Amino acid sequence: xxxxxxxxxxxxxxxxxxxxxxxxxxxxxxxxxxxxxxxxxxxxxxxxxxxxxxxxxxxxxxxxxxxxxxxxxxxxxxxxxxxxxxxxxxxxxxxxxxxxxxxxxxxxxxxxxxxxxxxxxxxxxxxxxxxxxxxxxxxxxxxxxxxxxxxxxxxxxxxxxxxxxxxxxxxxxxxxxxxxxxxxxxxxxxxxxxxxxxxxxxxxxxxxxxxxxxxxxxxxxxxxxxxxxxxxxxxxxxxxxxxxxxxxxxxxxxxxxxxxxxxxxxxxxxxxxxxxxxxxxxxxxxxxxxxxxxxxxxxxxxxxxxxxxxxxxxxxxxxxxxxxxxxxxxxxxxxxxxxxxxxxxxxxxxxxxxxxxxxxx
Length: 361
Fold this sequence. Notes:
alpha/beta, D-Maltodextrin-Binding Protein, domain 2, 5-stranded mixed β-sheet, 19 helices, 45% helix
């Protein structure tokens, strides 16, 4: 797996995404150029739970059986990942769809091909000391935690970067409990979720917003408490938002439909394994990407987040929710983006038909 590449700021990414025709003029990666090697970009600093189908597809040999050899590049963030994709650095990008929708609003021709997971596995976790200060325990009800959070003062919450999903998670929690950023609470950009976890350990923040398994690690290793969770629908508006998706340039998809059909078939097979044999899938993903985590702890994380994986389809409504929640700068009306042109689910349809699999209701 390659190291962090294409590290850019969100502002630099938005500038590139606004380049429109200039970016689209980049030569696309054709099957003749790449053979059976596929470069998958990843818009985060480390593997996330929501990427499970792709990693399981690789570990169980599903890509190999489709004639594909996968190289992965961890790009560090969604903006950096999409910048790499539109500049021709890879055939696919696995990330949250926010930056893609920004690009689509500016005329870029990009498509979403597969739902790696169906919502964002985001949580807000607080430190052991902060939880004790307000009498919060992990077994308290949502209403009890909500009441306690309304009395927070000087809460320092770590996020990855401004404008990111972690930023949205923190700000949405603040709004829900009546905290005013800059007064009752401080948002502290730390560059990545691992950095936020380190800051929690050192006492430089009182909590952080992040995706699984980092919040659960903070519980297990640091005695932290997961305060609110998207999976439990405890952070208003976030559960309907699409989770990590497989993205590609429309020109690449048009030139190499067989390549993308193979990718989606492999990922769909992996999703089926997750749903029908969760133990095998969880054990495989643990060995593939999270072997440093103790197996009993990993089993808890995997089971706790099982509802992430229900369908390979990305819906129009799940992308529109990104606009509604303010995650597409400059766009307030979902209808201003041709989301119908962004969503391309024909490969999912073909995969399900070939596999003879009906997604459970």
